[in-house]
Design a protein that fits this description.
Elements (H helix, E strand, L loop, with lengths): L6 E3 L2 E2 L6 E11 L2 E6 L12 E6 L14 E7 L6 E6 L3 H7 L6 E8 L11 E7 L4 H10 L4 E5 L2 H4 L8 E5 L6 E2 L2 H11 L3 E6 L2 H14 L3 E4 L15 E4 L2 E4 H4 L2 E4 L10 E3 L1 H8 L2 H4 L21 E3 L2 E3 L3 E3 L6 H8 L1 H5 L6 E2 L16 E4 L2 E4 L7 H14 L5 E5 L4 H12 L4 E7 L6 H8 L1 H11 L7 E4 L7 H10 L4 E4 L3 E3 L16 E4 L4 H14 L4 E4 L5 H9 L4 E4 L2 H4 L3 H15 L12
Parallel strand pairs: 9-10, 9-13, 10-11, 11-12, 13-14, 21-32, 22-25, 25-26, 26-27, 27-28, 28-31, 31-32
Antiparallel strand pairs: 1-2, 3-4, 3-8, 4-7, 5-6, 5-8, 6-7, 14-17, 15-16, 17-18, 19-20, 23-24, 24-30, 29-30
The protein binds ligand RRO.
Ligand RRO binds next to loops.
Amino acid sequence: MSANQTVSAPGRVLAPFGRRVARVQERRVYGAYVVVRCADPDGPRPQAGQFYMLATTDWGGGEGERPFLPRAFSVLRSPAGHGLEFLIEDVGPGTHRLCELAAGEDLLLVGPLGAGFAVPRDGRRALLVGGGVGIAPLAIWQDELGGAPALLGFRDAARAEGARLLADARVSTDDGSVGHHGLVTDLLCEELDRDGHATVYACGPPAMLESVRALCQERGTPAQLALESGMACGFGACFGCVVPTRIGYVRLCVDGPVLWSSPSASSIAHLAEPNARAVAGAASSPKANSIAHLAKPNARAGAGSAKPMPVDLCGIELAHPIINASGTFDAIAARRVFGDALIESFPFAAFVSKTVTVAPREGNPPPRLWEAPAGLINSIGLPNKGLERYLAEDLPQLAALPVPLIVNVMGFTAQEVAELVSAFSGRDEVAALELNVSCPNVETGLVMGADPDEISALLQRVRPLTDKPLIVKLTPNANDVVAVARAAQDAGASAVSLINTIRGMALDPRTGRPWLGGTTGGVSGPAVRAVALAQVHAVAAGIDIPIVAMGGVQRGVDAFDLIRAGATVVAVGTESFRDPAVGARISEELATLAAKSEVSRNGTTLNC
Ligand code: RRO
């Protein structure tokens, strides 16, 4: 590790903030796998077990308009000179594009991400156990350990070629074409019988990892397991990659991907001490854990050649009109991943928190995400720590961001909404409240937000409870969105925000049954942009209060269109999953467009 690397905790090197371009230097084929090596001169050397989000520059537009989201890959090796190697198997539209990359082409990457393997301090020998393309993080770990025996399982001979990437490997194949005919756990049993004083480091498909975990538990062998889970962002924003553990769902991207399996745990559903325990320990230094010490009045966001366009939202001065959509950026998790760089280059003019409810919520069971044509379907289900812990733990950190804070709240009854509004009413840290009456993944949320009378009654109940601006987040899943917006305005809303996601569904191609744990989900991304534009345009004609517009914004021109349709402020959502720093680029592009345009925003900014 070089001297200038920032390490936040064992197993975790901080990532530069944002997405960067890496030039492919070499492509090598190992049977069914491809190794892509790229230069990454601006990136740090990763820790073994960390991963990157990768995309090609011509991403999208493939069959079914996929891929849309980047894909997560553990680093295979990080050769001297800060190059990065990844092991890729062509299993779908995203991996197909990546497998085709040739030397001289560019790759988009974010990373290194997550927490990797932790150095053993128990005097036990290291034993590496890998399955399929999951052997990747074991190669760099073997290098770092200075050697360790590897037990590698593959489906067939074409995949067993991957074993050439590690030293000292024993191989098993499902079809018996190479090495032991059977499972890699057969080899693990033999090894542990021979010398059981070992720590196991494993990565592979879920069924293999569960067998490894069960075996290690039976024998009292500690294990570190690098898990995989479908993820959209890699930095804690999408809440999609959760796995169940003894302490509840954890996001693999920030609390893993390496999790500890304690010998006392009884199933993979309760397997883990998140490696982030170590992170939590390291972060208990106030400096590491808090963003408070970094507060700066003026974030760099919006800095570019054209002057940023300051805007007034209900009396809140924003440096430019681009903010984040609630639930698509977790500033606290992002701080763990990107460190101080996040604060120094904060991409939004205000920060909108993920929805807070009165009681803590685990959220929906995984799978929570599905990549849709040019978009994403989420069924996250409002996971949050609840009002009390939010006030105690999150609010102090979020209040120290260099931009105004808007807290998004949702109640299952009017009484709960009233409780939430009252709780934040006296908090100077909070600039405004956004009332989420439009979550597509809980029935009550939609019912409240789809009916003008319900909205009116809700606003009449909570408006007197606070002087703060109340922004009502509308659903596109209503018969008459304009009527709902007008009812909100007439009952005292300070602004409306739209659109929340559009209710959608995906079927598991293998079974024909709903894919998402919550059955249906909310569609976002460029797929919904035209719907957002139409609804913003219609609502703008029907109300006088400001509109915070969102839906598929990827470029300055998308934001510009929404402003021309009547929005005062534009929120970026799903696009941040593809590039965490994209808000800054969009605000710069918007400023350039506005400067070029005849359209002046003077006079369009509304005060509440
Ligand atoms: O957490 C969610 O599932 C979720 C929420 Br609260 C929301 O408002 N919109 C959405 O698409 N997902």
